[in-house]
Amino acid sequence: MMNLQNSLNFSGGPGALPESVLLQLSEELIQVPGLGISILGISHRSEWFAEVISELEDNIRALLGLNEKYHVLLLQGGATQQFSMVPMTLLRGKSTAAEYIQTGYWSGKAIPEAKLEGPIRVIWNGRAAGFNRLPTDDELCFSPDAPYIHYISNETVEGLQFQRVLGRDDVPRVCDMSSDFLSKPGDFERFSLIYAHAQKNIGPSGITVVVVRDELIEQPHAELPSFLDYKTQAKAHSNFNTPPVFAIYAVLLVTRWLIKDIGGLTQMDRINRRKAELLYGLIDDSDGFYQGRAETADRSLMNVVFNLPSLELEKRFIQESQAAGFSGLAGHRAIGGLRASIYNAVTIEAVEELVNFMDAFWRKSVRN
Amino acid sequence: MMNLQNSLNFSGGPGALPESVLLQLSEELIQVPGLGISILGISHRSEWFAEVISELEDNIRALLGLNEKYHVLLLQGGATQQFSMVPMTLLRGKSTAAEYIQTGYWSGKAIPEAKLEGPIRVIWNGRAAGFNRLPTDDELCFSPDAPYIHYISNETVEGLQFQRVLGRDDVPRVCDMSSDFLSKPGDFERFSLIYAHAQKNIGPSGITVVVVRDELIEQPHAELPSFLDYKTQAKAHSNFNTPPVFAIYAVLLVTRWLIKDIGGLTQMDRINRRKAELLYGLIDDSDGFYQGRAETADRSLMNVVFNLPSLELEKRFIQESQAAGFSGLAGHRAIGGLRASIYNAVTIEAVEELVNFMDAFWRKSVRN
């Protein structure tokens, strides 16, 4: 029913979505059952949409294991907007520095936006080492006075992922989980604010999920434009002004797929680990032909970033992989190389196909 | 092929879209021809998407008759975000007041957001008259010192529409055209900045078109978060951070439909005027059964807002219209009553069906 190529999409984002979700969205673009009209023509003030929001809030809270003190917000503007909204809310007017950890391309983008709002301190910076590893606990010294700490759980460009929670329990933790959100279980109640744009694991671009604890949005802060005010958005259940109805509905369908088809985050994690093992296994067994970029302990389960012995070979790899039906395997434009992003919707079967292709490409290249 | 009910969607927004556009989007959710993958899985850094942006910028400039001094931006956050971005850019730090005209619900929403950024002066306010008419030129006195003037070309809630350009040529004109954008030709080069969210005439919710003159974004202004900086967005051709690819592509398809299927804005205007004539004609011929809300001279060609002799009859009208396959005919929650929104994608045939229904409803109600 579906076309093969969707399943072979290894793009860094916007990424692959589950086939069943794409099929349902395709049908409902013409007619949503029970309503008779296209999903694009449904009012955001309809009962139908209120139920979509409500179910999605519940699903996200359930998947993350969050209590009722957390608000689930569905905002526009991507993680980039959160780079600013977080310090506008928590840092503007403060005299003590918020603490940031710079582990790669995206955490580096968050820092200048925060500096516009107040004092920050970068407590660890991996630039000197070329962002090929993450800090150990010994390298991180968190201050009890910081208004919050900020880090990124998974760096998509460099392929680095934290497998632990950072920071101290007496300082609010803020985490950008854009590229590993809903990919594995975790102790999410240790965070005060988590944000994630949708276009990696949970939907199309144009929608960003924010989960934020009550007390963070209740505390006094600078007067902000309404659309940048978490409290305004929370009160309105993300329907303060017209939200992106289609994108929100797509995220709802992905959470249903996670809960019903996959069976929850523990199952999702098992699948994701198997996919990563397959790819890193081949890389490690390739006698140095495929070179993983990140240090082994810090490798991302979402973005497998690697190089070949020459630029010429990398170019040929991309061409031949495209000819074989794969897409999205070029590395991020900031660093080049190759990258296989294996977000939730990429299947084990698709990864097996990629591993077979990579194995054949290696043997052929070495023989020549 | 299509279902009847999409064509009978008179929602105030998100509104109806052309059937041909819905069909194409439905197919391309599975597979975009030539790429083989779902539109939701295509990278925003792909050549394909660069061409989408480029064609869309050209189409909008061509439809509006704008020269190359105008940038076409595709932003998130709706008109609400523009309520803030405009004064952040043009008013923050200024000592002379920007001039706002308050003609209804939506222009009223823009004012408090502007006040957060600098001094403003409301030079006309229709509240006392219940927002049932627009100001005449005699009632408007514009200052030559204002950093800009701001007004809304069409008030969707009250059904009021300006049929002329306001302001002075030596002061930048800023206009929210969210609900009549690309519905008729005009002298758009007289504006310095025009913004319009998509979900009325040109696409799904989640995307906002801004056209802005070079000199407005080149002049010095307060340092802003990158995503709120028109200049950053213009330089990046709206691809500064991941944009809503699907929504932008939908808008492109609507502009193609406007150019190729409809034949441009003069033709579109002819169709829109015919639709409005049909509805207002029935209202005016109903012996006061249907009561148009706006004064005749200021009636909107996009939103036909009216009342019935009693709340009871209005309720019955909504129920019976839904049973007959129509949707979206309830008035805005702020004022109640009834509203038929006849945006570009609503056909003359659909309006004829509505007029027939309204005619029958009137005769039946009067007879009882």
Automatic annotation (TrEMBL), chains A, B:
EC number(s) given by UniProt: 2.6.1.52
Residues noted as binding L-glutamate in the record, renumbered to the chain: R45
Binding note for cofactor: Binds 1 pyridoxal phosphate per subunit.
Location (main, coarse): cytoplasm
Keyword Cytoplasm: yes
Domain Aminotransferase class V: 9-354
GO CC terms, sorted: cytoplasm
GO molecular function, one term: pyridoxal phosphate binding
N6-(pyridoxal phosphate)lysine: residues carrying this PTM: K200
Keyword Amino-acid biosynthesis: yes
Binding residue positions for pyridoxal 5'-phosphate: A79, T80, W106, T156, D176, Q199, N241, T242
Biological role: Catalyzes the reversible conversion of 3-phosphohydroxypyruvate to phosphoserine and of 3-hydroxy-2-oxo-4-phosphonooxybutanoate to phosphohydroxythreonine.
Protein name, entry field: Phosphoserine aminotransferase
Organism in which the protein naturally occurs: Methylomonas methanica (strain DSM 25384 / MC09)
